[in-house]
User: Fold this.
Amino acid sequence: MNHIGTNSIETMRLILRRFRPEDTFDMYSNWASDIETLRYLPWGPHSDVNVTHRRILSWVANYEQANVYNWAIYLKTQKQVIGSISVEMSNDKEESCEVGYCIGKSFWGREIVVEALRAIMHYLFYEVGYKKIFARYDVLNTASGRVMQKVGMHYDRTMKDVGRRRDGSLYDVVIYVKYKDDLEEEPF
Ligand SMILES: CC(C)(COP(=O)(O)OP(=O)(O)OC[C@H]1O[C@@H](n2cnc3c(N)ncnc32)[C@H](O)[C@@H]1OP(=O)(O)O)[C@@H](O)C(=O)NCCC(=O)NCCS
Assistant:
């Protein structure tokens, strides 16, 4: 593994870059305060903008660690940060990691996360050296499953009753995977 931390990646429509303290307002207004956007995420809406600010400051401090991969998704046309995409868990021994992502609901349906996920998978496979990338979604969050399919990930397994939603209900998780060796099969 060659941990190099969160470096900027530019795609057609996006700049994936480190969070900055001045992203607080964009993050709060575009996704961190919106219950619908966060429905399937483990954390609930921030009560006020200071919560978001503190979260960003802790992320900024974490960038000192070379094995932290946490990008702000900046949409060039809007000149705004509209979401995040990150490595949620890393297993260096198995050379595998799990990724997660979120963008505000005004930006859904334009394959923005597909574009971001393709770019970071390329980075994680070829710059960092992971061999296996996982992603998981709450079985009800089929939109997230579509993103995984569109980037060429393959269904791996479903785990029953692995967690509780914020409303207390139990949920199943669907896991998708992409191996580095698969990449040649897919147009990137
Ligand atoms: C799930 C999510 C990442 C999809 O990102 P996206 O950039 O909108 O992805 P796509 O444009 O490829 O759309 C994926 C699917 O979302 C659904 N979708 C698209 N536009 C939508 C909209 N306006 N409202 C609701 N669902 C929508 C469709 O099912 C679509 O699949 P299709 O293209 O086969 O019709 C995004 O909705 C999101 O960030 N949601 C909130 C956070 C979250 O749930 N993260 C994933 C945790 S596992």
About this structure: The chain has one domain: 9-185.
